[in-house]
Q: What sequence folds into this?
């Protein structure tokens, strides 16, 4: 018999409190003796096409969809010392899927970045430690989850025309669905906590100026950790999974399963500054994921977006 | 006479008058510049200056000047000062700035500050000084330190140099976005009391825009 042994309500309350605290922290610090801090705010909208929202290894079951993601964020930049700064941000986002509306979600996130610049000048390297907590609520409530991410990055402008950043990230996701998720009668004794994920990622990003207002951004990343895919329950998948549950979002009999995998991805974006406060961008991403038994999970994403800093 | 009486009370003003008596011509000329770029747009933030008069160098007097910081920008974007001048850098933003320069003409750093400026900075070497803020890397400004008393900053495509001596003038026009490395060099001749006019066009590079990196959320795996 499959069981879901995780306590869910406690986790939800803890995460919500943590996110709210990260939103309130800037207000508390604002009233402190720190001087000359800076409020930041922005909004963005992004339309995205994903050719494999199911992350299926089988082309016949790879379902595509497009979505619109709008986001509002507020930040607080605090220069702690001459070379050290703290940036705290909170954001509220909503992603609306066109066909699979059950995947539509609202996210509340808080982040804190402590950065240190190793000296004077625009070409000086910057080391940054970042912590993010994000709470996501889906129309398909089984997918509700809390994300915890910590990362360390080193970035440097090499010349005026290009800069480089390398980032190592660890993230952990807690799904908080309750007892009502349908179980899989013939499945092996696997837990149903499909959306409990952990992963490490290393990413290298480069930005090239291609004009006075335009630049290219390319990111290559390696991710080692859990993924979730949704397909019919083929025996090979049942063997490779570490958790499994029905996933009615993609049809009757479809299961969502978690497995360890490695993902390589390449992202390429063209960005164009509009005025002094906005950016328009268009880009794409290719993910190559390889799981147990040589299962391959190809994903292609095309996106275009606009962001504005108030 | 009244003017001379006032000067005698202030040594600094006496020096100024002495300089004016020795360098200012009896019948001064004026040079008015109209400056556009390749798109016929009036140019902002250029500097026109006279390097020699009849082949001779004329020493300038030091001044005091201000480069403010407003809205995360150096204001003015380009400031021309004479050799030996002192420039103060007030911060009118509600946030702190950290002004610095690595330029050969002046290497300096002002610690993180807000509001009232630290002590003015002495610019005792002629040349171009590029300013930056270590907190806001997109902030860039320029101070052009000139070894001449004859210069003017160009605003909305117009500038006027007054009190010019008659003769042959070696003139240069500089802008931070000039496509060529050197300032534009011209030779013009002005006669006493002449109001000379000069129309010039510069080839400028497009200005680099401030980058706002996309704020991207998590990728759900």
A:
């Amino acid at each position: 018999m499959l069981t879901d042994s995780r306590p869910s309500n406690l986790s939800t309350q803890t995460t919500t409190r943590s996110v709210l605290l990260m939103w309130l922290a800037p207000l508390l610090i604002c009233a402190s003796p720190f001087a000359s801090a800076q409020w930041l705010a922005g909004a963005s909208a992004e339309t995205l096409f994903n050719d494999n929202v199911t992350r299926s290894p089988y082309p016949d079951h790879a379902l595509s969809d497009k979505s619109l993601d709008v986001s509002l964020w507020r930040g607080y930049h605090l220069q702690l010392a001459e070379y050290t700064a703290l940036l705290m941000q909170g954001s509220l986002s909503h992603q609306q899927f066109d066909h699979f509306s059950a995947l539509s979600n609202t996210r509340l996130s808080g982040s804190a970045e402590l950065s240190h610049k190793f000296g004077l000048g625009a070409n000086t390297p910057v080391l940054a430690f970042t912590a993010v907590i994000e709470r996501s609520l889906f129309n398909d409530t089984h997918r509700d989850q809390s994300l915890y991410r910590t990362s360390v990055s080193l970035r440097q402008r090499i010349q005026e025309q290009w800069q480089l950043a390398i980032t190592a990230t660890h993230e952990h996701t807690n799904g908080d669905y309750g007892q009502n998720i349908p179980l899989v009668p013939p499945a092996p004794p696997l837990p149903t906590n499909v959306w409990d994920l952990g992963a490490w990622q290393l990413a290298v990003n480069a930005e090239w100026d291609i004009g006075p207002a335009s630049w290219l951004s390319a990111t290559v990343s390696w991710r080692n950790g859990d993924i979730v895919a949704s397909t019919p329950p083929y025996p090979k998948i049942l063997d490779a999974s570490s958790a499994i549950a029905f996933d009615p979002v993609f049809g009757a009999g479809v299961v969502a399963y978690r497995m360890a995998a490695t993902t390589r991805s390449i992202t390429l974006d063209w960005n164009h500054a509009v005025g002094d406060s906005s950016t328009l961008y268009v880009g794409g991403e290719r993910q190559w994921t390889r799981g147990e038994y040589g299962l391959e999970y190809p994903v292609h994403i095309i996106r275009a977006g606009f962001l504005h800093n108030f | 006479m009244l003017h001379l009486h006032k000067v005698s009370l202030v040594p600094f003003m006496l020096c100024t008058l002495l300089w004016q008596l020795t360098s200012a011509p009896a019948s001064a000329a004026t040079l008015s510049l109209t400056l556009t770029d390749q798109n016929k747009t009036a140019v902002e933030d250029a500097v026109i200056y006279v390097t020699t008069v009849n082949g001779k160098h004329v020493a300038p007097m030091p001044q005091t000047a201000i480069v403010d910081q407003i809205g995360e920008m150096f204001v003015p974007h380009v400031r021309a000062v004479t050799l030996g001048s002192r420039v103060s850098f007030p911060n009118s933003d509600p946030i702190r700035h950290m002004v610095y320069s690595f330029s050969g003409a002046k290497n300096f750093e002002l610690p993180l500050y807000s509001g009232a400026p630290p002590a003015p900075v002495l610019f005792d070497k002629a040349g171009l000084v590029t300013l930056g803020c270590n907190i806001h890397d997109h902030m860039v400004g320029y101070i052009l330190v000139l070894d001449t008393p004859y210069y003017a900053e160009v605003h909305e495509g117009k500038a006027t140099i007054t009190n010019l001596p008659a003769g042959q003038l070696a003139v240069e026009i500089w802008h931070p976005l000039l496509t060529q490395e050197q300032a534009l060099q011209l030779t013009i001749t002005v006669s006493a009391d002449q109001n000379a006019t000069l129309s010039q066009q510069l080839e400028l590079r497009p200005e680099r825009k401030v980058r706002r990196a996309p704020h991207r959320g998590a990728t759900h795996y």
Q: What stands out?
A: The interface with chain A takes residues 94-96, 98, 100, 102, 109, 111-112, 114, 132, 134-135, 137, 205-215, 217-218, 220-221 of chain B (CB under 8 Å). The two ends of chain B are 86 Å apart (CA to CA).
